[in-house]
Write a structure and sequence with these properties.
This protein has 15 helices and eleven strands. The protein is an alpha/beta fold and about 475 residues long. Helix 5 runs parallel beside helix 13. InterPro entries: Aromatic_deC (IPR010977), PyrdxlP-dep_de-COase (IPR002129), PyrdxlP-dep_Trfase (IPR015424), PyrdxlP-dep_Trfase_major (IPR015421), PyrdxlP-dep_Trfase_small (IPR015422), Pyridoxal-P_BS (IPR021115).
Length: about 475
């Protein structure tokens, strides 16, 4: 055995204690760590020929690389929609690496049963009792899987199997949506359906929610041709929601597959005051839910849900002499793109077991409250204005005066330089703007106060 490997094995308990101490130092110091850092090139390193062992590698990482990492796990990182990691999910993620299960087959482990149970729990959170699902790496792959099943359904309507004949046998595919996320378009490209297949349907005035009447007209214009409709349960910029119940009702007149992108907006179901926003979610043929956002588990973790497991199996069937043929409940290797796959479910199982529905409901409701608090503080100064109402957990705002792209970008940079908070730029209705997204389990009103002070100071410096 290599000398470094042998030494690390002999010292393993002490080395794990050193890693634990390092992780503890990072997590307990997250409140004082700069939230964002301007990337600075560290410089190249030669590939080690002999290695230095784990203890020295840990020291080198903390010295060379860790200082340049952002505080994205902390309570004032408001960029994108980035959740943190609850204590229980961190434990689950660590044990995921320790146990190193290949959650593909149920032949040698109960890992598959744990994933099935965890998916069932998550489905219950969102009222998806009639759906089955599987863990994937994130919202992009969740949308990809849902649309892949939709592609197979379209072929079935035309008497072909796309899984067997290929996408070329399908012909043009109409994909209708009001405000599709970029991962939808990316997935259509990967699936061979094509980016140009997207047909944007007008949205309601001043909204990102699709105009259902106009959607009905677009479907009618297809003269009975089956289509894919992508609906939103929470758009990225303003967290707007399509009327899912009304869209689903259109299937009484027109044939289409309803895919709902609920990456983080589906979590509105956990807030009694906002649950009506996702009314009708259970009517969808496929649903995307991203867990490393609002469930606050470590990257990478999401779930795809579908009501059509038979079609899903047809798409992702993995046939080989050394694999068990799917019977009854198929192994996950027959249901998702990956063959080998880590046990992503364990971190979610730990967090759901430790905190339950009530604990995760608390995170959602506090985050929504914090978003409204920040909006009130920012607009009270007169320096900033909202570009859309706060519907859930995102504050979309811009400069009240001379909101050019250059000035808004400068504001974003100035905010990041404070180290107090981090927000990301966007464009909404042609207007350069910034987004503050709340999804971290640690965030409190004190964090909102600190973020608001930093944003206001940066805006004042530009005035």
């Amino acid at each position: 055995m290599d000398e470094n490997l042998a030494n690390d094995l002999a010292e393993l308990p002490a080395l794990l204690d050193a890693v634990r101490a390092s992780a503890t130092d990072l997590l307990t110091g997250i409140d004082t760590r700069p939230v964002a850092r301007a990337p600075k090139e560290v410089g190249p390193e030669e590939l080690p020929e002999h290695g230095v062992g784990l203890r020295r590698a840990l020291a080198l990482f903390r010295e060379r690389w860790e200082p340049g990492f952002s505080g994205s796990a902390g309570p004032r990182y408001l960029g994108f929609v980035t959740g943190g990691a609850t204590p229980a999910s961190v434990a689950g993620d660590w044990l995921t690496g320790v146990l190193d299960q290949n959650a593909m087959s149920g032949e040698d482990s109960t890992a598959i049963e744990l994933e099935q149970q965890t998916v069932d729990w998550i489905g219950r959170l969102f009222g998806l009792d009639q759906h089955t699902g599987a863990f994937v790496s994130g919202a992009t792959m969740s949308n990809f899987v849902g649309l892949a099943i939709a592609r197979e359904w379209l072929g079935e309507q035309r008497g072909i199997s796309v899984a067997q004949a290929g996408v070329g046998a399908l012909g043009p595919v109409p994909v209708l949506s009001g405000t599709p996320h970029s991962s939808i378009v990316k997935s259509l490209s990967m699936l061979g359906i094509g980016r140009d297949s997207v047909r944007l349907v007008p949205t309601l005035p001043g909204r990102e929610a699709v105009d259902v009447a106009r959607l009905g007209k677009a479907l009618a214009a297809l003269d009975g041709r089956p289509a894919i409709v992508v609906a939103n349960a929470g758009t990225v910029n303003t967290v707007d929601f399509d009327d899912l119940r009304a869209i689903a009702a259109l299937r009484q007149r027109y044939p289409f597959w309803l895919h709902v992108d609920g990456a983080f907006g589906a979590f509105a179901a956990l807030s009694p005051e906002h649950a009506a926003l996702v009314d009708g979610l259970g009517e969808a043929d496929s649903v995307c839910v991203d867990l490393h956002k609002w469930l606050n588990v470590p990257y990478d973790a999401a779930v795809q849900f579908s009501r059509h497991r038979d079609l899903q199996l047809r798409v992702f069937l993995n046939s080989a002499a050394y694999l068990t043929a799917p019977t009854g409940t198929p192994d996950f290797g027959h249901l998702v793109p990956e063959n080998s796959r880590r046990l992503r479910a364990l971190a979610a199982w730990f967090s759901l077991t430790a905190y339950g529905r009530d604990g995760h409901q608390d995170i959602v409701r506090r985050n929504i409250s914090c978003a409204n608090n920040l909006a009130e503080q920012l607009t009270a100064t007169g320096l900033l204005r909202l570009t859309a109402p706060v519907r859930l957990n995102v504050v979309c705002f811009t400069l009240a005066d001379r909101a050019t792209a250059e000035r808004v970008d400068a504001l974003a940079e100035a905010i990041a330089e404070t180290g107090e908070t981090f927000v990301t730029p966007t464009v909404y209705e042609g207007q350069p703007a910034l987004r503050a997204a709340f999804s971290n389990w640690r965030t409190t009103d004190n964090d909102v106060d600190r973020a608001a002070k930093a944003i206001t100071a940066a805006a004042l410096a530009l005035a």
